[in-house]
Amino acid sequence: MSTTTDVNVPSPTPPGTPRVPLGQRLQGLGGNARQYGIFGALVVIILLFQVLTDGKLLLANNVAALFQQNAYVMILAIGMVMVIVAGHIDLSVGSVVAFVGGVVAVTMRDPIGLPWIAAVLVGLAVGAMVGAWQGFWVAYVGIPAFIVTLAGMLVFRGLALVIVGETLAGLPPAFIRISKGSLPPWLNYVGNMDGVTLVIGALAVAAIVLTQVRARRSLRRHDLHVEALGLFVTKLAAIAVGIGILTVILSFSAGGTPIVLVIVGVLVVAYSFLMGRTVFGRHIYAIGGNRSAAALSGVSTRRVDFWIFVNMGLLAGVAAIVTTARAGAAIAAAGQNFELDAIAACFIGGAAVTGGIGRVSGAIVGALIMGVLNMGLSILSVDPAWQMAIKGFVLLLAVAFDLLNKRRAGTQ
Amino acid sequence: MTEATRTPLLSMRGISKRFGGVEALVGVDLEVHRGEVVALVGDNAAGKSTLAKMVAGVLTPDAGLIEIDGVPVTIPTPAAAHALGVATVFQELALCDNLDVTSNLFLGRELRDGRGARDDERMEQVARQILRDLTSRIPTVRVPLSHLSAGQRQAVAIARTLIGSPRLVVLDEPTASLSVAQTAEVLVHIEGLRDLGLGVVLISHNMTDVRSVADRVEVLRHGRNNGSFDARSTGYEHIIAAITGASRAATPRPVPLRS
Questions:
Q1: What CATH number does the domain containing B75 carry?
Q2: In-domain check, residue B198
Q3: How many Cβ atoms from other residues are within 10 Å of residue A233's Cβ?
């Protein structure tokens, strides 16, 4: 190609486009600015309610309860953000939660009486099968996901009523511990702090620092652009401080680390990797960005669509187990509006309605913002009716703010 | 450019395709050799894009034979086309605005490291290398496509064709909707592809572009071959005549109405 280098063609670059170094620097920030914005909003809301509730919000047991109460939203939001990024929607997850919860309860109780671990596995498998059913109609028949999952919402609510009747109680205590229990105190207490929690927190910080430093070194080795050292260190320090504060607060709580927090943590790490660092994740973003371009490039759009819904079903199964364990019973009416909670979390967390944009971490932060609002307003004993209205406004404001920011940044 | 080899890189013979009652292509022949730029021209709906989509694996012919390097092939999917060494830039830009330059270059053919994980570092290195080779003015390969100008996006689309060392590149209207300077840049890229020894099929409406880079001009009219011309020696008006059919059909005359 050496022949082309000496041909002098006028630059097609419009005058406003930033030059290389500045452009790269702006880009490094610009790509993550929204992400930082969401984290900032979460911090502001936490501090606001910490003040309004006279410090009750961040009491150890309240923080533990925050995760136990909102685990289902976070689990569903992880699957939902993938669905939304691919340009679909899933309205059925609430009904699927009720249905799978019923299946799990039935398999644990007499006359079937499976051990609770087996019942959990059955629940996950049924969830995945529900997802495969919906994925089949979306991916291979081509019915819009809105319709398929609207139908699923009715179908699985109906099936939940058939299986459960009204309520199936009397579930084994070991199963209920999934949502209500905490990790056992394997280690000694340090003062009043749970040793297990402190060790987990320290390990989490160490793991994050290690992977980030290794990723940075790998970029360096390949002679690729890395973000400024100061920014990098600041970011890591902020993450470490955040996790540190959370760890210390939780270690003072009655039980230490809630088991559901471990489940959510593992899911967040696994799915962040899936979305950010795998070919499958890249293809989800590509399909959401330009479906026909992805297909012309050789991406198997149907296969990706199908597995996105299988995965959503699987995660709805996880959420069903957590929800059923928390209630201590399968309830036919369980999971009402769960789909709306999950969808709201995704959009507050920066996902685009048109698809192609959204992150697992954003959806989790979105879920936390809703959760903190719930808890803060409850502590302030605000009427539940007003709580609902306030959450609606927050959703609208978050998306409007995002949109205005994008316009001002000048990307269409 | 006949000094290349006797076996053409791409040989399509007797290609036909209908869409319902419409005959898009009827017994079309096309040959492309290594190091040759063949322009495929014709009026709207002459069947140019249909032919290109067959080479790209998007459409399959109803009848006819496709050979690549003398081997008869079927190209059922875009992935199959890529495996055969055919790279295509589609008229409707097949790029994802939300992904960065590197991701777009490797979309559908991502590199993996030894353990099967996505190898982002190596992809970014290759992307920078390719864009440097094409002398494109893209500030960084980490910028999402939505931040680039039309010309820069077209450069990315053409750079895409170089991933995976293709033998044949099909460009469907690569300069439509580009400014004069951007068009010049794309034409330089096309010459670069020829210098790399690739076969190039260039579909275009623009006779100036065609005559400046093509070695041979193949005209399609109403889904049929309507002449093959040497791009350097043939006059502009001959090609236009073949495209419009003026060389064959009589000039329409006003028909006097009977009183």
A1: 3.40.50.300
A2: yes
A3: 10
B175-187 tens-digit pLDDT: 877 778 778 878 8
Spatial distance between the Cα atoms of B140 and B156, rounded to a whole number of angstroms: 12
* B17: β partners: B25
User: How far does CA B132 lie from the centroid of its chain?
Assistant: 22
Q: Does any CB of chain B come closer than 8 Å to the CB of residue A289?
A: yes
Phi then psi for residue A352, to 5 deg, are -95, 140
Residue B252 inside a domain? The answer is no
Amino acid at A244: G
B250 part of a folded domain: no
Q: What is the pLDDT of residue B136?
A: 66
Q: Calculate the alpha carbon distances from B213 to A4, A82, B91 in Å.
A: 14, 45, 18
Q: Which of A296, A299, A411 best tests the B interface by mutation, with the highest count of B CBs <10 A? A: A296
pLDDT tens digit sequence for B138-165: 778 888 888 888 778 888 888 888 887 7
**Range(s) of the domain holding residue B94:** 10-244
pLDDT of residue B251: 53
Domain contains B106? yes
Interchain contact B107–A (C-beta under 8 A): yes
Domain count, chain B: 1
Extract the residue ranges of chain A whose pLDDT is less than 70.
1-35, 408-412
Report d(CA A215, CA A218) in Å as an integer. Answer: 5
